[in-house]
Design a protein that fits this description.
By secondary structure, the chain is mainly alpha-helical. Helix content is about 45%, strand content about 0%. Among the domains are: about 15-80; about 95-150, no CATH class; about 230-255, no CATH class. It has helices spanning about 15-25, 30-45, 50-55, 60-75, 75-80, 95-105, 120-130, 145-150, 170-190, 195-200, 235-240, 265-275; strands at about 205, 210-215. A two-stranded antiparallel ribbon has the order 1-2. The radius of gyration is 46 Å and the shape is elongated.
């Protein structure tokens, strides 16, 4: 038989008991709050500690902590976690200021070849110089540590944006003059009486006799219409009749040589037509 505890009883009002019962039967509340509500309800009914731990599914130390908080600060404190004071910061403010000062210094001023810092390069430099600079807390600083230090500052030295500032009030006039010089040089390089240039622009060329005609790059005779590749149905091919276009076709689907614009099937067409 379990021994009765010597702690003081927990007295709950009807409103407090109703709230604990609602929390203990909840399906949306955090599990730790549900377990603590069950512990307080069971203890208010004078159930032994060992039985409470077995019914709730926790150890006796958890039951003791919940009951002691409720007895000393009220049942609401028994449902919540106690405030845990944070540990003393490992990285001192002086060390953080040193990292920020390094980030504001160009790497080339520190004897490095790079123009800008990266987080990885800055973290490696911090680790290699931390002991000599008097900041041993940064001897094992990773890239994430350097990132958090820089993110905590209003100054973002690792985000550098280049820009151009126009200081000359006559910049627009000088820019127009320079552009006009380039335009005049381009006009001088282009012959003014060259007919071929005009012909290329208009798509026509002018011969030496003043007659107009097709451009020099075009053919003398008109182009033939491209031959049509005809794939006739199976029965028409075997019968030697007319193809899909109504013209006379041989067994392989090509037009007869007697017609103008002879089209001979390619190897792929022969394979398709023969199948």
């Amino acid at each position: 038989m379990s021994r009765t505890t010597l702690r003081a009883p927990l007295i709950l009002t009807d409103e407090e008991r109703q709230r604990l019962e609602s929390l203990a039967s909840s399906r949306k509340a955090p599990l730790r709050e549900i377990q603590r509500a069950k512990i307080l309800l069971a203890y208010s009914g004078r159930m032994p500690i060992q039985d409470i731990a077995r019914n709730v599914g926790v150890n006796r130390q958890t039951v003791y902590k919940c009951i002691d908080k409720a007895l000393s600060m009220g049942y609401e404190a028994g449902l919540a976690d106690l405030y845990h004071g944070p540990r003393d910061p490992v990285i001192t403010p002086d060390a953080k200021a040193w990292v920020v000062s390094l980030a504001c210094t160009p790497p080339k001023d520190l004897g490095m070849a790079a123009e800008l810092w990266t987080r990885s390069a800055l973290a490696a430099y911090v680790r290699s110089r931390a002991e000599a600079a008097g900041h041993p807390c940064l001897a094992k600083a990773a890239k994430a540590t350097v990132h958090r230090i820089l993110e905590g500052q209003t100054l973002k030295p690792h985000k550098i944006t280049d820009y151009l500032e126009r200081k000359d009030p006559e910049f627009d006039r000088k820019m127009r003059e320079v552009l006009m010089v380039y335009r005049e040089a381009e006009n001088l390089r282009r012959p003014s009486g060259h007919h071929g240039q005009r012909g290329r622009e208009t798509g026509r060329s002018v011969s030496g006799h003043g007659r107009s005609g097709p451009s020099s790059g075009s053919r003398k005779a008109p182009d033939r219409l491209p031959g049509l590749r005809i794939q006739a149905p199976r029965n028409s091919l075997h019968s030697g009749g007319a193809g899909p276009s109504g013209r006379s076709c041989d067994r392989k689907g090509a037009r007869m040589p007697s017609e103008p614009g002879v089209c001979r099937p390619s190897q792929g067409d022969r394979y398709l037509l023969s199948s």
